[in-house]
Amino acid sequence: MSVLHWIVGSSLLMSAIAMVGSFTLLLKPSTLDRLLLPLVAFAAGSLIGGAFFHMIPASLETFDNNIELFTWVLGGFCVFFALEQFLHWHHCHRSQTDCKQPLTYLILVGDGLHNFIGGLAIAGTFLVDIRLGIMAWLAAAAHEIPQELGDFGVLIHGGWEKDKALLFNVMSGLTFLLGGLVTYTLSFSLDISFLIPFAAGNFIYIGATDLVPEVNKHDSLRINIINYFTFIIGILLMLGIKVLSEIW
Questions:
Q1: Residue 106 φ/ψ region, left for φ over 0, alpha for ψ in the -120 to 50 degree band, beta for the rest
Q2: Residue 224: count of CB within 10 angstroms of its CB
Q3: How does DSSP classify residue 187?
Q4: Which of 195, 207, 193 lies closest to 50, judged by CA?
Q5: What pLDDT, in 10s, does the model give residues 222-242?
Q6: Residue 40: which of 242, 241, 174, 224 has the closest Cα?
Q7: DSSP letter, residue 226
Q8: If pLDDT is split at 50, 70 and 90, which confidence band does 94 have?
Q9: In the chain, what are the domain boundaries?
Q10: Per-chain mean pLDDT for the chain
């Protein structure tokens, strides 16, 4: 197969991973309700762990610990802060009872940007070496599976219907293919390295300011402990993937 076939095929397969959320459709409503907050906590840990263990370290290789790196991280944080303010006003200023939580839209925007950047990066590795591209894809897929499960849980918790949440998750996943095609077309003529720390700021904002407050104030100590440990599991999973990727 040509490099383009590898890029398109791997991108479509990565986008299909968003369907992993469909497994939750097989659960009873009572069972899903018990899993929602742990999934939200897991998503928070995955997002924050992904930012600190993957995106920021990758950015350090490009920016060499330059102040520009941290400017882009804070820029991503502040832009999502402003975006959430706008979404909250636009969707909820008339009625607080029937609107979806603004953070659910941020999840889709952030996940779409993350997938787009992932598509850019994976396509770049395929252009260098197909074997390297396969290994990079496997590492990225291991990262996406828990994140997509967590994102789906966040959307349901935020008021989305299950079928609509799954549809928009898949649509967000298709930006991976878009990123791959952009890289192939431009052949690295465009420097998009700033998007990586920018997305890290997005993930830190969503995880720390939106998702953590959702799970750290439950009345039950047992549930709070469960949520805390699922949050830590999300972080440790991202750390484990980082360690494995360096070994490979």
A1: alpha
A2: 16
A3: T
A4: 207
A5: 889 999 999 999 899 889 888
A6: 224
A7: H
A8: very low
A9: 35-60+67-120+141-172+188-242
A10: 80
Q: How far is CA 29 from the centre of its chain?
A: 25
Q: Are 42 and 234 in contact (CB under 8 A)?
A: yes
- The neighbour count for residue 120, using CB atoms within 10 Å, is 24
Among residues 63, 138, 77, which one has the least CA distance to residue 106? Answer: 77
Dihedral pair phi/psi, residue 160, rounded to 5°: -80, 145
Q: Write phi, then psi, for 174 (nearest 5 degrees).
A: -70, -15
Cβ atoms < 10 Å from Cβ of 2? 8
Q: Taking Cα atoms as reference points, which of 79, 84, 81 lies closest to residue 104? A: 84
Whether the CB-CB separation of 17 and 148 falls below 8 Å is answered with yes
Residue 236 phi, psi (nearest 5): -65, -35
Instruction: Write the CA distances from 9 to 16, 129, 143, 241, 247, integer angstroms.
Output: 11, 16, 18, 23, 26
For 95-210, where are the alpha helices, taking DSSP H only?
A: 102-128, 130-157, 162-173, 175-186, 195-205
| 185: pLDDT strictly greater than 70 | yes
Closest by CA to 79, choosing from 169, 190, 204, is 204
Q: What is the pTM of this model?
A: 0.71
φ, ψ of residue 16 in degrees (nearest 5): -65, -20
Whether the Cβ atoms of residue 119 and residue 195 lie closer than 8 Å to each other:
no
Residue type, 201: G
For residue 152 the two structure tokens come to 């789906």
